[in-house]
Specification:
Serine Threonine Protein Phosphatase 5, Tetratricopeptide repeat; elongated
Length: 377
């Protein structure tokens, strides 16, 4: 299994652009030291533009550290190289190298930035925030640090603060595709879907042609019921990165809502193959939940009610606090005439902020009253 690299890919360019300035400040009294600096610059260039050389770059960095164990820049680049590999077993190694770089040189801003990206990918936003705040204390107002801090606050559940910080980042650098993208995510979380579309489209124009940008643009199009545009954006996201299951689930949703039921099964099948049956992390569990929800709604649309019930039961088993799962399971149970069980699910859904539509709730209330006439219990 690999961890997502989308966020780090958006930021790697800036992190590496900052590296030559770090290297320029090194003392180079001897020719071999100058050679080390040149090799580090070459590795930095490789990591930005040539993924196929990452194994060679790792070997080069280990060789440098064999003779220069206190090179903060070499430790930082080795951490970035491990992260670029993207394998789960190297995530700890990547974090360790970046922390080692900062213990040698706490002023190494790219190391703070990249470690923050890594913590976000590892679902540790509180640690990412610590790194970014430390970096901003050294470089106040730096656009990329502000943008990523905004994204961190969004992941910590504060999209309003995220919108403010990413707005500050755009004031500092209006051409930043990354800041524009994170600003769009904050708008989306605040329910301002039409506004978020403008940001995602602008991010694409500014060079952020990344699968996650297309995927979130597709989600925003779905929320504004612009289904053909949503389908086109999600297909583009999948073309750019066919290893990610979420855009496939969203594509199935777009097809279903657009009435193209014959096209729903294929993306769901692909997503199911990518996700598997075992949830290793919270992110895996959420993907499984989203997949089962869409499968359940697809079967409901086809009036395959027992199959829909099985899928939606899996949703609430995975996440009992997820209101939409209880809401749609209640609907399926109503349509099967299982009113007592439906009432239990409807009550759970309402408590979680996802009540049944008024017409379905009335149907359920009427059926329950009919099954228990007044005076008979």
């Amino acid at each position: 299994m690999t961890f997502p690299s989308a966020r780090t890919r958006l930021a790697l360019a800036v992190a590496l652009v900052a590296l030559p300035a770090c290297l320029a400040g090194q003392q180079k009294p001897e020719s071999d030291t100058a050679s080390v600096a040149d090799r580090l610059k070459q590795v930095a260039a490789d990591l930005f533009s040539r993924d196929e050389r990452v194994d060679d770059d790792i070997a080069t960095l280990k060789s440098i550290l064999g003779t220069e164990p206190n090179s903060a820049e070499a430790h930082m680049l080795l951490g970035i190289a491990y992260r670029t590999k993207g394998t789960a077993d190297l995530m700890g190694e990547a974090a360790g190298e970046l922390r080692q770089a900062l213990s040698l040189d706490p002023s190494l801003i790219p190391a703070h930035l990249y470690l923050a990206h890594l913590y976000l990918d590892l679902a540790r936003p509180e640690r990412a925030k610590e790194e970014l705040q430390t970096a901003l204390a050294q470089m106040p107002g730096q656009a990329q640090l502000l943008a990523l801090l905004g994204e961190t606050d969004r992941e910590l559940g504060d999209p309003t603060m995220a919108l403010d910080l990413t707005g500050q980042a755009l004031q500092a650098d209006s051409g930043s595709a990354e800041a524009r993208y994170y600003h769009g995510l904050a708008l989306y979380d605040l329910g301002r879907h039409e506004d978020s579309i403008g940001d995602f489209e602008q991010a694409l124009k500014q060079g952020g042609r990344r699968p996650e940008v297309y995927a979130n643009l597709g989600r925003a199009y779905i929320e504004t019921r612009r289904f053909p545009q949503a389908i086109a954006s999600l297909i583009e996201a999948i073309k750019l990165d066919p290893s990610r299951a979420q855009p496939m689930i969203e594509l199935a949703r777009a097809y279903r809502l657009n009435g193209q039921l014959g096209r729903v099964e294929a993306p769901l099948t692909h997503a199911r193959a990518l996700i598997g049956d075992t949830a290793v992390s919270a992110a895996d569990q959420q993907l499984q939940r989203d997949l089962y929800l869409e499968e359940g709604l697809f079967r409901l649309a086809l009036k395959q009610l027992p199959a829909a019930e099985r899928s939606l039961q899996k949703v609430v088993d995975l996440d009992s606090s997820y209101g939409p799962g209880h809401r749609y399971l209640a609907e399926v149970l109503i349509r099967q005439g299982l009113y007592t069980r439906a009432q239990d699910q409807a009550l759970r859904a309402e408590k979680l902020g996802s009540p049944l539509p008024a017409d379905l709730q009335k149907t359920l209330d009427d059926k329950l009253r009919a099954s228990h006439p007044k005076g008979q219990g």
